[in-house]
Design goal:
Triger factor/SurA peptide-binding fold; 15 helices; alpha+beta; 3 domains; Chitinase A, domain 3; 4-stranded antiparallel β-sheet
């Protein structure tokens, strides 16, 4: 957690580590499919095969990988076997993802792999279910993404050195099944944990004053938005085009996926043939979800409007509460005159605020086209914690570039912003309403952040208690060469 200075690490280290413990990362990804799952689910004593240091790259950033065990069994947790090669593959996978491995140890990786398998093992014991449809759907999405990135299924198989699609899907199934079981088990452990104000206060008071977290400089930002409106003529052009696409698919058996690649203006799905998988909880706009969940499998919607433009949706598959769908988004063209008119209106609003005719908050309420912020004085909310504060070092780059030169009590000139989600361009003016310098945590001012840290500690303690209890009750065997590891948990039973 970057918001903590080095002086804070002594007391807060275990709290920060909770993020790693709760992340449910199955570090061995697609590139490192688990050969261990091919072994019989029997409780066997670990074996080892050693590869000498001379066979390993001298430049390996993990210094205790001098003697790598590439074969043999590193550990057994319940019905799950961890191979020595799984540890090395996890390290390789971390490096391939660009993660820093300078502080990663072989023992730490083994401990994390053992944690994942204990979660999965106990999930099975507790009858926590993951359906084949869920697992296969995740594999389908991964393969679709890989094909769109690499170019074809053949290229994907060659890249990952797989003989055929069926065996690749089988490996993906095993990886995803383990990950999903682990995730559900861990979520179950912490799902009902809450933190009271008194617990937050006690958590804060027990931190020594010289070890309290230091929070970086933060801003509160407000904005007034004018969204240019397309002409009725342009709107009708888009509706006619979408109806034409729909008819070609229904009457001539044209591919919806190809049409989406050719015509959709949604940057998040265009390259994937318009594909999304979603539930009612997926953060899509209400109008989109209402239409999607009103359709039958195989049905295509009529054109409908959202804030982003006009859509048609094709429901590809219904799996209980989850939909696989494809959609095409086309936004009506905004003329230069309409853009210029929006800019002029904001110029007038800005002048009115500067002249004292009305406050910025009142102007936002009466003139802004952004319904998410206008009723709160134009105040932006941080998507990370829904507070009104944005830490400078963690601010999204495009937002930072918009506000970095705005001085206190100053209102920006109109800023043209293209919607990265595919919506129409808009103009806005911005103001910094509050500025907070870097400071040592203050209970009253930083309550939300302190509350989050307190909750993490409570979750950490719950996880630790659960681990201790279930390690004791579960068959665990560690290779003799790994018994000297300083594990975070008591994997080596006395």
């Amino acid at each position: 957690m970057k918001l903590l200075k080095k002086k804070n690490l002594k007391f807060m280290n275990k709290v920060i580590k909770t993020g790693f413990s709760l992340s449910i990362l199955l570090l061995t990804g697609i590139m490192s499919a688990q050969e261990s799952e091919n072994l019989p689910d029997t409780q066997v004593e670990p074996q080892e095969v050693i590869v000498e240091e001379s066979m390993i790259s001298k430049n390996d950033s993990v210094n205790n990988f001098k003697r790598i065990k590439l074969d043999g069994i590193a550990a057994v947790v319940g019905d799950y076997v961890i191979l020595e090669s799984d540890i090395e593959k996890t390290l390789i996978d971390l490096k391939s993802q660009g993660a820093s491995t300078a502080d990663v140890t072989r023992c730490g990786l083994l401990g994390k792999l053992m944690e994942d398998r204990l979660y999965a093992h106990q999930a099975v014991q507790d009858s926590i279910l993951v359906s084949d449809d869920e697992v296969n759907a995740q594999g389908d999405r991964q393969l679709q993404q890989l094909v769109s990135q690499i170019g074809s299924m053949e290229k994907v198989l060659n890249y990952y050195k797989k003989d055929d699609e069926a065996s690749f899907r089988e490996e993906l199934y095993k990886i995803n099944k383990l990950r999903m079981l682990s995730e559900k088990m861990q979520n179950k452990i912490v799902s009902e944990i809450e933190i009271t104000p008194e617990e937050v206060r006690q958590f804060f008071n027990k931190i020594p004053e010289d070890e309290r977290p230091v929070f970086g400089a933060e801003l509160e930002i407000a904005q007034i938005v004018k969204q240019p409106k397309a002409s009725e003529e342009e709107k009708q052009k888009v509706i006619d085009k979408l109806n034409e696409i729909k008819a070609d698919i229904e009457e001539n058996d044209a591919s919806f996926s190809v049409k989406a690649i050719l015509y959709s203006q949604d940057p998040g799905s265009k390259s994937k043939g318009g594909f999304y998988s979603m539930t009612r909880e997926t953060p899509f706009v209400k109008e989109f979800k209402d239409v999607a969940f009103s359709l039958r499998e195989g049905e295509i919607s009529d054109p409908f409007e959202t804030d982003f433009g006009y859509h048609i949706i094709y429901v590809e598959k219904i799996r209980g509460r989850e939909l696989d769908l494809r959609h095409i988004l086309i936004s009506p063209e905004i003329s230069q005159k309409e853009l210029d008119d929006a800019k002029k209106e904001l110029d007038s609003i800005r002048k009115g605020v500067l002249d004292g005719k009305f406050t910025f908050a009142a102007a936002a309420l009466n003139f802004s086209d952004e319904k998410e912020t206008k009723f709160d004085g134009g105040l932006l909310r941080n998507p990370q914690d829904y507070s009104s504060r944005f830490e400078l070092t963690k601010m999204e780059p495009s937002l930072y570039n918009q506000v970095r030169d705005i001085k206190d009590n100053e209102i920006s000139m109109p800023i043209l912003e293209n919607d990265p989600r595919g919506g129409a361009p808009k103009y806005k003016i911005m103001k910094i309403t509050n500025r907070y310098d870097e400071h040592v945590a203050d209970f009253a001012k930083d309550y939300i952040k302190i509350q989050e840290l307190a909750l993490r500690e409570k979750q950490y303690n719950a996880i630790k208690k659960w681990m201790d209890e279930h390690i004791e009750d579960t068959y665990v065997s560690v290779n003799s060469a790994n018994k000297d590891c300083d594990f975070a948990n008591n994997w080596v039973k006395e």
